[in-house]
Records
---
Amino acid sequence: MDESLERCVKSLEENTEDVRDEARRALLNICQNVLRSPGNYRSRELRLDDEVVIEKLLPAVGAMECLFDVGYVEDGERIFLPRNTSLLKLQSLSRLLSTTIGNSPITDDINKSSTVQKAFFDRIVGHFRDVMYYENPNLQRKAKKVVPIVQLEIATMTKIRELQKSLKSSNAAEITSSQFEMELMAKDLFLVELLRWFKYEFFEWVNSPMCPTCTTECTYENVIRSTNPHCSRIEIHRCQKCNIVVEFPRYTHPEPLLTLRRGRCGEWANVFTLLCRSLGYDARFICDETDHIWTEIWSASSKRWVHVDPCENVIDKPLMYEKGWQKKLSYIIAYSKDEVQDVTWRYTRDQEAVMKRRKICTEQSLIHLLQSLTDQRQNSAGYSCARRKYVVKRKVLELADMLYVPNLRNKTADDEIYEGRTSGSLMWKLARGEITQANMGKSYIWDISKYGQAFELQYNIVKDLYHIVQNNDTVLEQKSGWLEGMNATEGGIFRKVENDWKMVYLARSPEAEYGRVKWTFEIADSKMCLETFTLTAKTEVFQGAKVSCEIEAVFDNKAIVIAVPNCDSFHTEEVRNAVRLNLIVTLCGGQGAEAWQHAQLFRQSLDNTEEPSMIINIQLKNHCV
């Protein structure tokens, strides 16, 4: 029996009884329909707006994973089982579901089987072996050459000068006497610039490769083994227009990826960890058994390991996966040149639930394996005694950092708002439970009164960053991710990147007749109110589509709606004395199957990294009359 399929079926137990049983019956019905009529294409297809998908499969942890594991693939508005896919795994899924439906759950704990434990332990050993690739001096030199070090150092020094300027008036003596701390801070700030460059300028996410003939995205068909020891497998994709087969090798060695510069989370973390090691950071490769990979960096300034996700351009948000992506975490293992460490507890605030899911092996056997591998590495030839003492001391600090005592620890991280995954296609994220419809919108309100009488908000869709700017160049505040600054969205709005045309923009879901976004600006200071509002935003329409804007101005005793005839350049004084503004942009119209793509908000070239896609200027005044 296939272990990955067994894990998918077993994960259905994470749901409440009614949700679990509904999902099991729906999955069994899908299996039986295909097996009864394997040549009937309709039996192999499920639309994403189908009642079965929305009401029975998506709400259940593990349900969509079962379908993807037996060979279903995503294609825009549907998932389907390709004709050339073997039905053996589908038959196995049918047998597993038939065993559980109408009876108590499977009595023998599948995840405790020796084969599953062996596969898990083999993965740990393999990853611990492979991280030594990063220590190859020749590979490090090659990796370092691809990094624009001077450019990133200039950006880092600019941030340091801005920080020094902001602190100078209040604490100049401390700044001049803490040169060592500034050097440590510079290394941390350089990491921020490295991460941004890697995400937006160097590496590319691939759901499915582009057809080399017509440059449209291909469709996944199946996977074949690779004879290359540096490549785990080769995915086979086919262009639906040209019928051309395109191979997508999944490399586990970082060297070819320095040239290819594309992949999914495994490739992203692999190359980013190598770059960090080549630049002198203590870095390690983090593997989550629920299917994600990222990096951790030892911060000398804060004396702790810092979570860094290159796919998401996120630093130091370890609870992001559990709270934002809704992941049901189990095992998260860290691999470095020094040690292999179970770091699950840094990434959860629900230890009790996590422990219930950790059934692959006993805790004692896992601890024994990790310690044995670490001892073997640290007792190998050339490993210094001084390094061993340093790593042991660092490990003690790490274990203390992962202790969580409810009601005693600083709750800032616990109370922070986390969003769902941004990399990967929507269905891919929904199927893994890494994003939900509930957290696809935000409720953020900009308090414009805390910045004085002039508020300027800039958004850059290429970098996906908001900046609050003062005097045209000083950045007062920054937010990463377009959803972070939103008050509400409708119509499945998403950020579309066209790698073939090298363009990026916001668009509505293919299933939606319209899409809508809303930004909200409020004055918390009762002594101030609005004077003027100015908007400049990039838009593009095709095939009769429309991008329309309006402003809702709320006063103490009334509210008015102000039409915005031109989003590209608009100024009004009708907002005078208002205490709250809503800027609403609606995308609609277009023709044919691609109508959703014909109304584009913030359309901008991927090469145009510095120009703002939207600028909002709001002037305020004191003592409203």
Note: Residues 165 and 172 are 9 Å apart (CA to CA).
---
Amino acid sequence: MTTLPICSLIIVNYNGLRHTKDCLKSLQKLAYPEQQLDLIVIDNCSQDDSVNCLREQFPKVRIFVNSANNFAKALNLGISEAKGEYIGFLNNDATLESKWLEILVKVLQTNEKVGAASGKLLFKDGRINSAGIQQLPNFYWQDVGFGEKDTGQYDTEKEVEGLCWAAVLFSRECLEDVGRIDEDFVMYFEDVEFSKRCHKLGWKMLYNPAAIAHHEYRGSSKGSKLTEYFCNRNRFLYLAKHEPLQLVKAIHTSDFFTNKQYDLLFESLFVAIKKLLDNGKPEIIATVIPLLSEKLAVIYSRIKVDRILPRLQVVRGDRKMSIAIYDHGLHFIGGGQKYVATIASLLQNEFDITFIANKPVAVSDLESWYGLNLAGCKLKIIPLAFYDKRGMQCIDSSIIAEDMQNPFDEIARESKNYDIFINANQLEKVKPLSPISVFFCHFPNTFRNSHFAVDDYTFIIANSQFTVKWLEKRWNLQPTFLLYPPVEMATVKVPKEKIILAVGQWEFGGTKKQIELIQAFRSLLVDYPDRLQGWRLILAGSSIPKNPYLKTVRNLLNQDSRAIELKVNASLDEVKLLYAKASIFWHGCGLGEVNPQRFEHFGMATVEAMQNSCVPIVFGAGGQPEIVEHGRSGFLFNTVEELCQHSHKLIVNPDLLAELQAGAQQRSQKFRLAGFELKVKSFFEIVHQEYATIRLPNPADIAQMLDIDRSR
């Protein structure tokens, strides 16, 4: 007697314990040698304790857990584990009559080019579920005989276009020749697509009415809406892969279009276009894509349609994700500019980064100013005629009234050329037109006003708790998260000198309070001439040419410049040496102000000084209290008198000075680059993953979205 071949039967289960148990019980009654049966259950991440129950009740069944709720992926896993010469797929809500397997094995053994066979699939009430599947107009498909009373009309063996996979048997040779089931389909239509590939390779599908199976229709996938969703979605995938010239025509015959489910239509066409790019011939792609684009532009906005191909380039790995970093003050040296330039330096290997400026500046300038390597970055200058005509070096958005054309529309138009647009310096009038946008806010300088566009950004990132508070108060907005600026100001170790150092821009409005600091130092000289013997005040910072505020300061020093020095536009190395030598650091931004905009929003220079063991004495508002712990790592002051008192206390008490120098250095570690780098890279990696990955739909999530019962 000839030994019958081993047959592997694969059942996919998702929260379907009752059905799967009935299915397995029917397999125990098959008229087929038990030792030649290889029964496999693939569990699709069930939550009903299916796996444990099935292992206990059916110890001879091999059970594997899939990594996702994906029916096609589960079948591939089952095939990879199968031992049989013939491999069957069974829905867990199907049961087999005893001769089903024996009949189909004989069919496959006696028909060399038949790759798969199935029998008559009946509903529980005896009506026909499927006698094969056939194509309908507009590339829809249906089960042959669906819902008909069984009167023998399908009792003839015949070749069919396809077979229902609720109960089907394949030869291993066919499965290996055709290849893996396409997991992008997830569930439904994967059988149609696989049949198409079988036919292309010359494999036939055979229907044999003597092999009887019973099926509790949609017992494993309740709810027609879930079926409709995947059948409509996957119809587009099938066409993109096998009938791409029909893809455009299929839009208007889609249920998604008919039912005005435009979001579902767009998502389905997006993955279909990727499928076309992955599988289509170049000449077909060149024909279909423009037609698709024009058709979709009638349904959706042109900008939404134009984003499809650029994103798919990233998804397919054809190019890096692009980032534009716009800073209207990039031509100035400043903490905010260093903040975002540091971000660029951290991301330049993974992203294609372009700085956008309005005034002349070069990448080499940024590298020199901030001690960064930005070799992977580009820079584009987009002049703003409104400001250039007025000879304005500072781009002040507050002067743009409601009835004026928005000069920043030029930047908005440029933003759509990138995957991510970063507004690095809180200019509130730039509308982002990129798929993803990030608004870095160092402070909300204005109130909601004309051309306000911050609401349109995908993410808002704040640099301090102080900024977070005012974002909510002024704009009623919450940031995505807080990102303290990174500070890495390593210097050479040299003996400390009797230097009080202040570092800050020479801004036109005098917000860094250099004049007030000079007056405070002069008061100390007058009040404590002996104690201040040998002490110097050094004021360092960048300035543009013809700065009226700097001119005022110089005129003030012409009257009396004893022990006071200015270091204007000092090089980075010069500033580092000053930090290394200085014993005390002063910062007066916010002194005498009522407008929070004129406070220090964080205080990067303060942290730089602390990293070099300078004791900070800083104005006690804005972001500075988040840095300096009063009396432990420095002092906070509210008046010039308090500034002088704290300074005198340190000057006359070397032990206290040394104690707070150590405290300042320790506290400054909280704001080092390492933590900043981790947060930046983690955030942009998440953004990249979301943008560059097409996530396959989880049937359970889709069911919940469609508000239907789900159990497959």
Note: Residues 129 and 146 are 5 Å apart (CA to CA).
---
Amino acid sequence: MEVNIGVWIVVLSVLILAYRWITRNNNYFHDKPIPSMAVQPLFGSTGPLILKKFSFHDFVHHIYVKYPNAKIFGLFDALMPIFVVRDPELIKKITVKDFDHFIDHRPFFGNSENDNPYSIFGKTLFAMGGQKWRDMRATLSPAFTGSKMRKMFELVIECSESVAHYYANQSENKVEVELNDLCTRFSSDVIATCAFGMRMNSFTDRENDFYDNGKKMMRFERLSVALRMFALKLCPTLVGQLGIDIIDRNQIRYFSALIMDAVKERRTKGITRTDMINLLIQARQGILKHHDEKEGDEGFATAKESSIGKTNVKSNMTDIEMIAQAFVFFLAGFETVATTLTFLMYDLAMNKDVQQRLYEEIVATNEHLQGKHLNYDTLQKMKYLDMAVTESMRLRPAAAFLDRICVHDYELDDGQGLKFTINKGTTVWIPTQGLHLDPKYYPNPEKFDPERFSEENKASINPMTYLPFGIGPRNCIGSRFALMEIKAVVYYLLLKFSMEVNSKTPIPLKLRKGFTIVGAEGEVMIDLRARKA
């Protein structure tokens, strides 16, 4: 009996200590002059998201509208206090004016280099922090300029034409397609040729290893991955030291071998190719330098490079860091571009008037080319195409929120009486999805209306309320590439087909629920109907 009592005392003591550890930060926002969301043990304020009651985008919009009069409010992501900034002027302060206080991303999956020295993701540009990030950004930035995109554009055109030809050969009338499948296969082929120097056709060779490994790597909705993500959020350092990463080692080994084999072959055989591997080799050798370029109008959504990215630095890139940059280029290009393209094609199928006007612009452009291939500069002149892409990314941005971590105590002051300290180590969220659907900035925000971004209207848009590629020096380095890829394939598909809804098309489109990357829930079916010659 005494033994049983002793055991219960130990168990109770452990539970009490665990509860105190879990709830140790629960009062964090109580001395801040801002509202904050309720907290649940372990789940924090994000329980409905973790339990798959919301998609990530719907959750961000839900919490955004919860405090319509607040410029900033607090919540807990598991055990981590988060400041959610709703006000465009404060967003500008944090991401641009006072950037040095918020230079880093939060190690979102516990995969920073400090937490997990074995993590490939921890060595990517996205995960790097401080001076290391500054140097890598400056090293890589010249690889993503307009002049480099022009040289790579021919590779993108080959993939875009290949998709259109494949479906044209399937039927003389119409073919039913699943958009997730179409778009991931296209983006896989583009990344294979532009980043890895491999010519693939995932439409005719449907079981190729490159596409198969990419699909396996991006299955973030699996239970095993969800458990790893949750564990990494709760105790990132411990889990990282155990060598656990968010991405399976088999896929890491596969893509690492591809990159290093390509680099070795090019060095030994003197091969030069206008792709990302070649640019990374040049960056590592210090050959790739920033040169001032005359920036044309490359679209409203294109992220502009800051002075940090335009600084010439001496490269110290290691083999593993070069692998990591190519690796993250794959991650962004495979899933994010595919999802954005899926949403755009769905929006065009659902809005026949927009599709018809875009088709007329494409036909006029094609006639102007007089049988020549589409080129990068001509693509940038297609204003309505840019408007349609820009509007689709407003409705469903690839990232529901942006994050920054405070690296020095920061005295936030809005100049109107709101003043308090954001402590070092605390995370800030910028709710992209909430801003994009705020009727204060975009009237009738649920409507797909490219006219919002016409020459007459776009000047009135506050740039802090449109953030599909982020904002400030840590914006997306690959925005030009992503937009080029998306626009090119839409151009060639609409030349040959109209996009139409059918009985299987999900109306409205629903997003995957839970703590996962954005994507449509289930299949997204439409018809591609061949245009009459």
Note: The longest strand covers residues 72-77.
